[in-house]
Amino acid sequence: MKRELHIMHSRSGGFPARTLVAVLALAWGAAAVSAASGGAPPAQSNAASVARSAPAADKTAPNQAAGFVGDDTCTTCHESEGKSLHQTLHGKAQNERTPAGKGQACESCHGPGKVHVDTGDKAKIKRFAAMSAREVNESCLSCHSKSSAHAQWNGSMHDARNVSCTTCHSVHSFKSATAQLKTVGASDTCMTCHKQEAMKVQKSGHMPVREGKMECTSCHSPHGSTNVRMLKVGNWINESCTSCHAEKRGPYLWEHAAGRENCTSCHDPHGSNNDRMLVSKVPMLCQRCHISSGHPPVVYDTTQINNASNRAVGRGCVNCHSQIHGSNSPAGNRFLR
Amino acid sequence: MRTRLFAMVAALLLVSAGAMAQDNKGADGQQDVPKATTPSVPELGFVNQIDFGIRGTGFSANSDEARYQRFQDRRDGATLDRFRFTKDTSSYVINLQADNVGYKDQRFSASYNNYGKVKAAFEWNEVPLFYSQTTQSLYSSSTPGVLTLPASIQSGIQNKTLTLPTAMLGAGAFSMQTERKVADFRMVYSATEAVNLNLTFKNTQRDGSQPYTAGFGFSGATDEFALPIDQRTTEFGTNLEYGSAAAYLKLAYDGSFFRDNISTLTWANPLRSTDSSTAPANGRLAMAPNTDSNTVSASAGLNQLPGRSHANAYISVGSLSNNDPLMPFTINSAIASPVLSRANADVQARVTAMNFSFTSRPLDPVWLNVRYRQYEFDNRTAPFIVGQTVGYDSSLTTANTESEPLGYTRHTLDADVSFTPITYLGLRAGYTHEQIDRTFRWVESSKEDVARASIDLAGISWLSVRGVYEYSKRAAVTSIDPAEILAIGEQPTLGQYDIAPRNRNRFSTIVTITPVSMFSVNGSAGVGRDDYPSSYFGLRSYDSDIYSVGFDFVPVENKVTIGASYGYEKYNGLQASRYAAHVTTGVPPTFNNPLYDWFDSNTDRVDTINASIEMKKIIPNFDITVGYDYSGGNSNYVYTLSNGPQTSPSVLAAPNPLSPVTNKLNRGTVDTRYFFTKRLAIGLVYWYDSYSVNDFALGPQTGGLAIPVANPSIMMLGYNWRPYTANTVMGRFTYLW
Fold first, then answer.
1. pTM of the prediction?
2. Is A209 within 8 Å of B193 (Cβ atoms)?
3. Strands, DSSP E only, in B216-333?
4. In this structure, what DSSP letter does residue B344 have?
5. Which tens digit of pLDDT belongs to each residue from B266-279?
6. Which of A39, B41, B144, B404 is most open to solvent, judged by the fewest CB atoms within 10 Å of its CB?
């Protein structure tokens, strides 16, 4: 009864049969090329290809014919995995995009299990732990590339660095409340590798990551993006920053060139020892580019500060150049106000 | 040396990886992230939870209570700090959440997912930013955007019967904070298996006040005041996407509209009550302008090309605009404000972005990627002509200048090839060429070539190694004539570090060893060297050295977890300048004299420690988690006069050294919970949080400077960096169902 329901949902999806045949042919073709190249063991490659074609097989022929044994057979031995799967979105049969919705909750990912069941050989089934990162990713992306959320994975920095989906996610054994991550929080996952950034977010000048009001994924898309640095929003660093700090977006009548080009010229978004997450303290930061114009290039030592120089105390240069991000004041060409 | 080191590391890794590849039994899981064994949510079979209790904090004397609560609200009182409710059926799931209810960092969310049909989620999130609870000011405001002073103070100071420090004795204390209130709605409607319609709507209200400074010129006052904030950003987005195994297509619109409800700020001059041609009674500044952003984009991808290839294309075209009315040059009635060359800002930019990528895996061990990216900020604003201007509302001067509508275009080509000789090993080589064309900058066109190589051994159970080396060289293609730089009184050999020619070497690696499944140790290193070979003045070099070590120990699966890490960071920047007294016309006498050179070496060192122990039910019915986090920073700014090529001694006075800038953040937590039954628990949470700081410019601290709230011409808020020590205790009940 359950399986009939799955099949009914699949049929109601309206996915063109001709497209499926074409997809199937392409998948087989690619697998054949792969196998001929001497790459992964043929059994695995074939399993992957058949797994991709599972929906078609489900609709056109009995599962047994394609070597599928069905979830009930799998969970006879793998009971806990079966239970955990059905607690997740993968196991929601109503969604025809899910493995359960395809009628093969287990074998959509692990491939046909008949040989594995018949022989008891655990090498005769797709085991993600034994696969290369890209093989894992190809398997996951056979479904997850259908939306823009993962569309930029291919060629992303994580893809280039041999990171696999299962590096961060677990289908059966996860700790997070969402996204099936191996750690409780998304930032915990990121900080497993990104140690430098993990240290920076704890500095005295930081965004509210330490306080739990932001996560790494507030700004970054770990699955790739059209922006640089895997930033989630916009097409350049500044567009990401100003998606929250819109008051600094401009455009302005008078633009601060360094800021217009890149917020990170002056700020370290992961945190710093300085006020406002600046990469250095003012006025020294400003003096990295401005040494003469308007002001004498002065050594701002203790003597200067004891004179309560308004270029050094408090917020330094921006005491007067308070519109440093840009100004709409007609008299604001020096970002005074 | 570096090359040799890299080669040795790579060789070592290849050997170990090869050895591992022989033993497939070790392949029990990806090792990068410690393996989880059970989902945390259904830990006790319950997915719903409510935590409520009471909380109180004790501070040591003179603690900065606002800084303790920088991005959070930890006031004393009753708490409902966590609520989770989920109703999951075979066809839909409803999820409700609430955190810190009733406080300024509260968050609520609700989501509904009718599997495969509709997903909708709403979140209300408040993020406070507490600046100070002890700030002082003489200003008051009865009209938004207008800060006034008692007339008696202005006139008293103007008539010299009162001084600003004396007046400040009567300043009232107030709390300064801003708060973001974010309402975020998202919906996905799945029309068919392949078609999604997405809608997003987000509204961010930001209000409160923040510290700000504005001045009345060299001979006038510099005033810190609480800048009123009342801003709203409304974002709307929609996109239609089609996705199949073979291809996807997405068409999208995104709009963002920023509105500042306070367009200008007028504040009273503490030194004058009446306007004169050299000093005003009031100053006025332009607040952040209202801006509109509209973007349409299209993206498409093909996923099943021959050779396991994928092709993606993305194009977006957007407009950014700001057309606020311009305020007059001055509010000073004693100065005839020059005529504006136009009444409105009329600032417009066209932003075009495109991104094309092709990825292929023609053979199992070979992966290729080529990506071209272009980003153009085309500033279409007509120059704003300024004949005469008024500086600080105080002086009418001839400017004869015009605005410079800065724009730039970035072209970036990336090419990478990766080779996977054995299952878990990836070797990558890559190259990037970037060209940036700019208007109105010293370097009008620059190019950067980047070569990189990386090694990634991941997936085997006992060893994970990731490392990358990158060398890049940025060069100027075209720069403006040095004579033009001289003409504006700047040194032609000054390098603006964001665009100046630069050689960069960077290497980073992280190694994790897991000799037994219950224990792992990790270490990371990152070394960076930036040199600016053509910059005599400005930033000359910037180096970074970052190391960390840590371990994770799980002696009893699902019950005991212990972890600790230590991180060391050191950054060093060297910059150069030359003292040359400002002159009204011509070149200052010392402009070309290297005996006036000075150098500033900035060293930033940070130590970071994290440690935690988590024990669940080791003692029957009792959970405890203990955590400790430490971040200690130490920044030095050391001036020298003899770091240049000159042979004669410097003629500048020996600099008076600055005190190191130090700060230390300590946070310790103990979180206990005793379960009376499977559903009901009582808990006690203790937070220890302390911050110490020594900052020469943002004192007052021991060893720092005693900056008065007011000196004869500078009026400050008293918003300084101040330490705190806080001890917070919270008792709470937890109910699960």
1. 0.88
2. no
3. 222-243, 247-260, 264-268, 282-286, 291-305, 309-322
4. B
5. 999 988 899 999 89
6. B144
pLDDT in tens, B126-173: 999 999 998 889 999 999 999 999 999 989 988 989 988 888 888 888
Distance separating alpha carbons of residues A283 and A318, to the nearest angstrom: 9
The count of other CB atoms within 10 Å of the CB of residue B288 is 26
C-beta atoms surrounding A72 within 10 Å: 11
How far separated are the first and last CA of chain B, in Å rounded?
Answer: 61
Mutate to test the interface with B, among A178, A226, A232 (most CBs of B within 10 A): A226
Q: A226 — phi, psi (to 5°)?
A: -85, -15
Answer yes or no: are the C-beta atoms of B22 and B63 closer than 8 Å: no
Q: How many CA atoms lie within 13 A of B658 on its CB side?
A: 30
Return the amino acid letter for A217.
T
Contact yes or no for B714/B167 (Cβ under 8 A): no
Write out the H or E segment, with its range, that includes residue A85: helix A79-86
Q: Which residue's structure tokens are 């989880």?
A: B36
Set of chain A residues whose Cβ sits within 8 Å of the Cβ of B579: 296-299
CA trace torsion A25, A27, A29, A31 (10° rounding): -150
| pLDDT (0 to 100) of residue B166 | 87
What stretches of B364-442 adopt beta strand conformation (E)? 366-379, 385-391, 395-402, 408-419, 425-438
**Burial tier of A14 (Cβ tally within 10 Å: 0-12, 13-18, 19+):** exposed
Question: CA dist A312 to A100, B350, B418, B639, B718, Å?
Answer: 65, 38, 50, 15, 16
Rounded CA gap, A330 and B407, in Å? 20
The 10s digit of each residue's pLDDT in A21-55 is 343 344 334 433 333 333 333 333 333 333 333 34
Chain B residue at shortest CA distance from A36: B363
What one-character-per-residue DSSP string does B473-542 give?
EEEEEEE--HHHHHHTT--TTEE-TTTS-EEEEEEEEEEEEEEETTEEEEEEEEEEEEE-TT-SEEEEEE
Cis ω on the peptide bond leading into residue A251 (within 30° of 0)? yes
**pLDDT over 70 for what percent of chain B?**
92
- Measured between alpha carbons, how far is residue A222 from residues B451, B470, B511 in Å? 23, 21, 21
Angle between the N-to-C axes of helices A42-52 and A133-144, in degrees from 0 to 180, rounded to the nearest 10: 10
User: Of A116 and A2, which is predicted with more confidence?
Assistant: A116
Nearest alpha carbon to residue B591 among B599, B580, B606: B580
DSSP state of A106: T
Contact of B92 with B119, CB cutoff 8 Å: no
CB proximity list for A131: less than 8 A, separation 6 or greater:
A40, A44, A139, B423
Residue entry with tokens 């997740």: A88
For residue B265, give both structure tokens. Answer: 């700020």
Inter-chain touch B340–A330, beta carbons under 8 Å:
yes
User: Which residue in the set B314, B327, B663 is minimally distant from A204, CB to CB?
Assistant: B663
Supply the pLDDT for residue B179: 97
CA–CA dist A284, B662 (Å, integer): 17
CA distance A216 to chain B (A): 16
- Taking the CA atoms of B577, B583, B584 and B586 in sequence, report the sign of the dihedral they define: negative
| Chain A with chain B: Cβ pairs closer than 8 A | 510
Q: Taking CB atoms and an 8 Å cutoff, what residues of chain A touch B498?
A: 258, 261-262, 265, 289
Query: Hey, what are B704's tokens?
Result: 């720092």
Distance CA A109, CA A52 (A): 8
Backbone φ, ψ for residue B726 (5° rounding): -125, 140
% of chain B at pLDDT higher than 90: 76
